[in-house]
Specification:
Elements: E1 2-8, E2 12-19, E3 34-39, E4 46-53, E5 58-64, H1 68-77, E6 95-100, E7 111-112, H2 115-123, H3 132-146, E8 150-155, H4 165-168, H5 175-178, H6 188-202, E9 211-216, E10 220-226, E11 229-233, H7 254-263, H8 268-277, H9 280-285, H10 291-299, H11 303-327, E12 332-336, H12 337-342, H13 344-352, H14 363-367, E13 373-374, E14 383-386, H15 391-403
Parallel strand pairs: 1-6, 6-8, 9-12, 12-14
Antiparallel strand pairs: 1-2, 2-3, 3-4, 4-5, 7-8, 9-10, 10-11, 13-14
Helix pairs in contact: 1-3, 6-15, 10-11, 11-13
Length: 404
């Protein structure tokens, strides 16, 4: 089965092709046959396209970005034309899997895309205005370019759709529940992959392990996994809740927003921009949303960078503690995504607060760019894993499961 995966965002789109053969899924992610990235941010009015194949062929070009659909069609053309060709005709693609950020309360699992599903994705754009429209655009581009190929929506919210009501429902008026205002959670595809991968690394049945997964990138979230399911998570009705992030505030006292509206006459759009784009590491440090640049500034004595780090670590520890309480114990603490995978200082700072559990980090293992390994000491009562998240592979696996 050849599976094309599209992960369409507002500023970039990542695509890849896997071929899964046999009657069972392999234990390890397969090598990509083809992968491509479109970036609309480098040069206004143009799109930058990068393509490479498993055989080592590469293509990099910049084309006019008059129509995003045309740009995506041009990218898809590289599948079966030119030096990066990996198929002879589009009909060789058996299924196309799409990351769709918000599935609302109706979609608890991946589904074949129909007109009703497309309408639902469009309707739910009110809950994910920066993501669902771009996801829908990718679906429509495939329809136009690949015709009647089967397409599958893999929802980022689906993995968290079985949260207990006590964790999912906000303590506002009950009418909020009827209006669909609840904790949906995000990064679900990554959390699902990492949970399964963690169980494999530990040699355990997923249903038997209690995990806290720390997805720490520009966006950050934690998930508490028990019996193979997410039972608590930090992102909420939107991806803005919970941890301090690169440029998002994470959870703040809602009274602050009322105060800003009343006393400073801020508009809704101004508050949205502040909370999503001018807060977090960027807002506190005044430097960057990139943890690497924050660490560099700290080494040069920058006090605001130090404050940003201190807040980030405090809130990470705070929410790990909250997830721990929901689980009632812990078998493994998992770090993933850009910061989680690549920043040993963040991992060390997070683990330091939980030595009272018998959790012991091996400093040498932590320092040597670990990938899909246990970095706890041999006598640690809790395992500590660093896992390279593979969202595209998980989307491909969801497509395979749906049809096989």
């Amino acid at each position: 089965m050849k599976i094309l995966v599209l992960n369409a965002g507002s500023s970039t789109q990542k695509s890849c092709v896997y071929e899964i053969t046999g009657d069972t899924l392999p234990d390890e992610p397969l090598t990509l046959l083809w992968e491509a990235k479109v970036d609309w941010t480098h040069h206004q009015g143009f799109a930058e396209i990068e393509v490479k194949t498993a055989k080592g062929e590469q293509l990099q070009e910049e084309i006019p970005a008059d129509s995003r659909t045309q740009v995506m069609a041009h990218m898809l053309d590289t599948l079966c034309k030119g030096s990066t060709q990996v198929i002879s005709q589009p009909s060789e693609i058996d299924v196309v899997g799409h990351r769709v950020v918000h599935g609302g309360k109706d979609y608890h699992e991946s589904v074949v895309i129909t007109e009703d599903v497309k309408q639902a994705i469009a309707r739910l754009a009110v809950l994910a205005p920066d993501h669902n429209p771009a996801n829908l655009e990718g679906i429509e581009a495939v329809e136009q370019h690949l015709g009647t190929v089967t397409q599958v929506a893999v929802f980022d919210t689906a993995f968290h759709s079985h949260l207990p009501d006590a964790a999912a429902i906000y303590p506002g008026p009950y009418e909020w529940v009827e209006q669909g205002i609840r904790r949906y959670g995000f990064h679900g595809i990554s959390h699902q992959y990492c949970a399964q991968r963690a169980a494999h690394i530990l040699g355990r049945d997923l249903a038997s392990v209690r995990l806290i997964i720390c997805h720490l990138g520009n966006g950050c979230s934690l998930a508490a996994i028990k019996n193979g399911r997410s039972i608590d998570t930090t992102m909420g009705f939107t991806p803005l809740d919970g941890l301090m992030m690169g440029s998002r505030s994470g959870a703040v006292d809602p009274g602050i927003l009322i105060h800003l509206l009343r006393q400073f006459d801020n508009s809704v759009d101004e508050l949205n921009n502040v909370l999503n784009h001018a807060s977090g590491l960027r807002g506190i440090s005044g430097i960057s949303n990139d943890m690497r640049q924050i660490r560099e500034a700290i080494s040069q004595g920058n006090s605001r960078a130090q404050l940003a780090w201190d807040i980030y670590v405090h809130r990470l520890r705070f929410y790990i503690g909250a997830m721990l309480a929901s689980l009632g114990g812990l078998d493994a603490l998992v770090f993933t995504a850009g910061v989680g995978e690549n920043n040993p200082e963040v991992r060390a700072a997070a683990c330091e607060a939980f030595t009272f559990l018998g959790l012991k980090l091996d400093s040498e293992k932590n320092a040597h760019k670990p990938v899909d390994v246990d970095i706890a000491t041999s006598n640690s009562t809790v395992r500590i894993l660093v896992i390279h998240t593979e969202e595209d592979w998980e989307i491909a696996c969801e497509c395979w499961r749906l049809f096989e």
